[in-house]
Design a protein that fits this description.
alpha/beta; Aminopeptidase; 5 helices; N-formylglutamate amidohydrolase
Length: 240
């Protein structure tokens, strides 16, 4: 982690612009957090949103959309859960047991990682006064633990505020994509970061999920960064 912080900022915040939040950008596990899993699992979707961090960084560096990005794996602390959520420190993910998290000091992890991440994000957004927030994630084409193949290439999630999502769904469909409307899962059940930092403040947002087999390479991440930046720029204009 840079400077020992559970987050980093990429790009300069310009008040009134678009900002990006990437809760699952990293697969980093601190040395003092023994998860007890094979190292190979840290390269999979249970540890990190594959490709999402690369897209967020490219949007910051090439498209003027600064990013607030996690620097710790979701297996250490899930920053996209409420502090008191039963799975904020997961003991299982997609059929894989995380033995090192059984009996873990949850409060210590919340104190060391979750609170600093969200406190810094709150300050960033207060300073930015963004016209639109992008919450960027990726999803696996099919869960190992079962379920159907997920056909969507990109999904827009929302809870109560679907202002921006409605425009984004239409615009991504105009790109010829199979777009999920609150798929592959519903923001009405899982929307913690945007509930706290967007809906609670009346800030419009696009919670975007991209299927991770489409964004595994740098070239794909660059292409999607350009498309997401373009779509969200047009969403922001439509909201004016």
């Amino acid at each position: 982690m840079i400077d020992g912080l559970p987050y980093k900022h990429v790009g300069a915040v310009k008040p009134g612009g678009i900002v990006c939040v990437c809760d699952h950008a990293s697969n980093f596990v601190p040395e003092d957090v023994p998860l007890g899993i094979p190292a190979s699992l840290l390269e999979t979707h249970i540890a990190v949103d594959i490709g999402a961090g690369g897209i967020a960084a490219r949007m910051a560096r090439r498209h003027g959309i600064p990013a607030h990005m996690a620097q710790v794996s979701r297996l250490v602390i899930d920053l996209h859960r409420e502090e008191d959520h039963p799975h904020v420190v997961p003991t299982e993910s997609d059929g894989h047991l995380i033995p090192g998290n059984i009996g873990a000091n949850v409060e210590a992890r919340v104190r060391d990682y979750h609170r600093p991440y969200h406190e810094a994000l709150a300050k960033c957004l207060d300073a930015a006064r963004p016209e639109l927030i992008i919450s960027l994630h990726s999803f696996t084409p099919k869960l190992e633990s079962g379920g159907e193949q997920r056909p969507w290439q990109v999904g827009l999630l929302y809870n109560e505020d679907d202002r921006a999502a409605r425009h984004a769904i239409r615009l991504f469909r105009e790109e010829g994509l199979n777009v999920g409307d609150n798929e592959p899962y519903s923001g009405k059940q899982l929307n913690a970061t945007m509930n706290r930092h967007a809906e609670a403040h009346g800030r419009p947002y696009c919670a975007i999920e991209i299927r991770n087999d489409l964004i595994s390479t740098r070239a794909d991440q660059s292409r999607w960064a350009a498309m997401v930046a373009d779509v969200c720029g047009r969403v922001a204009l439509a909201l004016d």
